Amino acid sequence: MGRHRPDHATGEPMDEGFGAIVRNCRKLTRLAVSGLLTDRAFGYIGKYGKLIRTLSVAFAGDSDMGLKYVLEGCPKLQKLEIRDSPFGDAALRSGLHHYYNMRFLWMSSCRLTRQGCQEIAQAMPRLVVEVIRSDDEEETDNYVETLYMYRSLEGPRHDAPKFVTILRIIKPKLMLVQIKFAEPSDVCQKWGRGGAKI
To answer: Could you name the domain of life of the organism this protein comes from (predicted)?
Structure first.
């Protein structure tokens, strides 16, 4: 369809059209959506697309709720590819219950932060979480260009190019606290045997 384009006949979002597709095609296993779609369309996908295994989204949605509807409503979802959509960290966190069942999640040009991706890596240690930037892009702590998250029996790859950062689990640092105890003889001298101060 193209970037956020409305229905060419009505000029309105195409929510009802995609809603009709998922309502009437209950055996649908693959779906690609793009164009002017609001969270309502994703609500329909989550409600009726119970057999969807592969979903591609481009230039669609208007808040984190759209992705939340899909991740909470499509239990069979295996492959999810999203680009140029307004989904951020809250949307990403909404799928924590489901990611181990998926083969991969690819999000590009969305509103994800490095911190949000790191939270997922911490919460899902058996998944590989990669942050990918373009060759000429500097590494920053702000928005992430591309997130690629997948299952692997062998763990993270060892041949990742320089523009790929594999997020690792950050183990909490142990703090050593030195406690100095008073000598028993000092306590006895100050307080006496019966607890009365001397």
So the answer is: Eukaryota
Q: Which of 124, 54, 73, 116 is nearest to 91 (CA)?
A: 116
In the numeric block, the tokens 């607890």 are attached to 195
> Quick check: 100 and 151 in contact, CB under 8 A?
yes
Q: Does an H or E element contain 105, and which?
A: strand 104-108
| Model confidence, pTM | 0.78
pLDDT band, very low/low/confident/very high, at 120 (cuts 50, 70, 90):
very high
List the chain domain ranges. Answer: 15-171
Report how far residue 80's alpha carbon sits from residue 70's, in angstroms, rounded to the nearest whole number: 10
pLDDT tens sequence across 144-163: 999 999 998 888 988 999 99
- Quickly name the fold that domain 15-171 has: 3.80.10
Strands 79-83 and 127-132: unpaired
Phi, psi of 148 (to 5 degrees): -130, 120
What three-state secondary structure class fits 128?
A: strand
SS3 call for 60? coil
Tokens of 19: 């809603």
For the record, the structure tokens of 47 come out as 């409600």
Name the strands in the sheet holding 79-83, side by side, starting at the edge strand that comes first in the sequence: 30-34, 54-58, 79-83, 104-108, 146-151, 127-132, 164-167
